[in-house]
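Hey,

Quick one before I head out. I ran the complex with copper (II) ion overnight. Inputs first:
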Amino acid sequence: MKPFSTTLITTSLLLATVSPGIAHFGMVIPSEPIVTAEKRSVQLDLSFSHPFEGIGMDLVKPAKFSVIKDGEETDLLPGLQESKVMDHQAWRSDFQVKRPGVYHFVMEPTPYWEPTEDLSIIHYTKTIIPAFGSEDGWDQSLGLPTEIVPLLRPFGNYAGNSFSGQVLLGDKPVPGAEVEVEFYNKEHKFKAASDYHITQVVKADAEGIFSFACPQPGWWGFAALSTADYTLKNPQGEEKGVELGAVLWVYMDPWL
Ligand SMILES: [Cu+2]
């Protein structure tokens, strides 16, 4: 058994070294980035995936999925249906929008044990969409354990705009936070120029503020990763570190 496990470790180290860009993202992708009177129902696809490469991973039923509007939270977990995203276990929510407002959808996944990184991962994943012309409240923080609060209004943007946001951990800015950026390459339209291009990286300033220009239309994911101040048991029952992700998805429209 010993030589075999040594080989495994060597292989995973090697993979980690040669694939700088491999990152998984919590994903909450609505069917429409803006809700209008012509289309009042939104389908939300929840997954845990590699958005640029289109490689899926199984997402067990999230611990929480809700929508927050004007500080009021509605639990959407009971209506979640099993589905597939990138050929893997995912979840779908059909949401009827009745009133104008800005809707913050938030998924808290159950902790995911990643043996190659020797830690559990929890990506708090957020997507903000407006309905019927309202835009109040897009800049509010939701008090999540960690989150990216947008500084650019996160809807009604064109490809080429700079997205800007602030990384919070326990309500405090994270100085120098590292933010991974990935494009949802849904139609496999693009190839990465190198492995480094799959996941791009930007660092926040002393106030936890970062910006990143999004050159193509579509969904862009931003993930700020921190280490939790607690541990969780892995499947073998050992206490291990926890990576917390603050993930935000923002849509950039094409010029018409
Ligand atoms: Cu992965």
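The chain is about 5% helix and 50% strand.

Talk tomorrow,
K.
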